[in-house]
Amino acid sequence: MKLTINGEEKQFENQMTVSQLLTVEQVKMPDMVSVEYNGQILKRPDFDTTNLKDDDKIEFLYFMGGGR
Q1: Secondary element (H or E) of residue 35
Q2: What is the pTM of this model?
């Protein structure tokens, strides 16, 4: 299965969910990451039930606060 993750194409042998991808990719702070799935922000409860398929596009997004 070919996925594009943060603009980089990667190959995976097995089907997986978004939650499993976070583990496989060793995403830092997985509880703080937002996931854009084929152009749409995915709700956190859907991470476990969204099965990835060939040619999906995934972006891992971190929203940081700051300022004064």
Answers
A1: strand 34-37
A2: 0.88
